[in-house]
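B., you asked whether I could sanity-check this one before it goes into the benchmark set. Here's the sequence:
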Amino acid sequence: MSYFSYLPKIQYNIKGSKYGETVTARDIFIRNLIKQNVIENAINFETHTIGDAERPDTTSYLVYGDVKYDWIIFLTNKMMNPYFDWPLSSQDFTKMIRGKYGSVERAKKQIYEYRQILQEADYTPDRQIKVLMEVIIDKDAYNALPSGEKKRITKYDIEFIRNEANRQIKIIDPQYVEDILKEAQTKRYR
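And here's what the prediction gave me:
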C-alpha cells in the first residue's frame, strides 16, 4: 500500500470552475506522517548507500524485507520528488547529461566554477591530519594561481556530485517501521 493511500480524500476544484465542479483527490498538503522532530533527532538510524539502478521499492525490500515501506524512506529523507531526489542510475545519468548539455564530452568542457585549493593541517597527539578546503574564485584569480592550488569544476562534475550526494540515505531501524505504519493507518488529520 502506498503512502498516498493513507492520506485523506478531499473534493478539489481542479479547473477553477466557478460552478464548483470538483474531483476527488488525495490531500497531499497535510503534515507528514512521520514527525519531523523524530526524523531529525532520532538515534535509531542506519545509513544505506543506494546502488546503481536501485529503485525505491527495491531499497525498501532490501532494508525492510517488503516493498510497501518505500514511502517511509521518502519521508525519512525529506524526498519530495522521486525524479530529482532519488539518484539516477549511471545509464539514466548519461541520458540526462546528453539531454541537458548535448553530450557528455560537452558537459565535461563547460566550466561550472573555479576553485582555489587551501590546505590546513589539524594536529592530533598521535598524527597530523591534512584537511583540504576549497573556495570559489573568479577566472582571473584562477589563472593567477599555480597549478597545484587551483581546480576547475565542470558542469559534468557538479551534476555527478549532486547525483552521488543522493545515494547516502537514512534508514529508520526496521523494528520501528510497523509502528509507523500502524500510526499512519490510524492517524486523524482534521
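One thing to flag: Residues 34 and 180 are 7 Å apart (CA to CA). Otherwise nothing jumped out at me.
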